[in-house]
């Protein structure tokens, strides 16, 4: 098989929130709205990035000193999503995202999108940004919101096997330590981007490449997939 044909096996699984979609302002506003339901003080972006973790109830535990009860979690989760989705339509793509998706596809390489955002909300938003044509598959979360990405990535890659996508030639680009854990779970690689939910120091704890731009993320993905 030629080098060109081998390169075609390279695949990126993109995260959405905080990675392709620059929605951190909407996330902070929605988080603070959910905190206000219980009288918690607003959180800053810096503090959010220091403490954020998936699954999300663990994040609230770091802030509250205990896990929220089921009733508290239900209220927080509902409030967050109500405020977040009211603002999400105004969020733009991350700098250079559109061009990077186009160029990766133009090089004969494949990519897909996997998010923990609800599937029924995710798909129309991706379509509204006009980038759905660049992906072999777009999958959002089905089931409860207090989950990690690993199981979803297993199912996502299984659905892509027919397209020749293999975990060992796949790089997941995301903005959370959970993205790196999910990639390791399936035998893929990961590159983490600092423009979303985590501080650089927390991302570096995952032991994978950490970058400040999506252009650097794609460059790192090319190197990892070789």
Can you describe what's shown?
The chain is α/β, with parallel strands linked by helices and 226 residues long. It is built from 11 helices and 8 strands. The strands form 2 sheets. A 6-stranded parallel sheet has the order 5-4-1-6-7-8, sandwiched between helices. Strands 2-3 form a two-stranded antiparallel sheet. Strand 6 (170-174), helix 9 and strand 7 (189-193) form a beta-alpha-beta unit. Residues 1-9 have low confidence and may be disordered.
Please indicate the percent range of residues in DSSP E strands (runs of 2 or more): 5-15%
- Overall mean pLDDT: 91
Q: What is the number of E strands?
A: 8
The stretches of 5 or more residues where confidence is low (pLDDT under 50) are 1-9
Q: Can you count the helices?
A: 11
Report the C-alpha radius of gyration, rounded.
17 Å
Structural class: alpha/beta
Coarse morphology: globular
Oligomer state equals single chain
| Amino- and carboxy-terminal Cα gap | 15 Å
Give me the strand/helix succession: HEEHHHHEHEHEHEHEHEH
Strand line-up in the sheet with most strands: 5-4-1-6-7-8
Major sheet attributes:
6 strands, parallel
In helices, the fraction of residues equals 40-55%
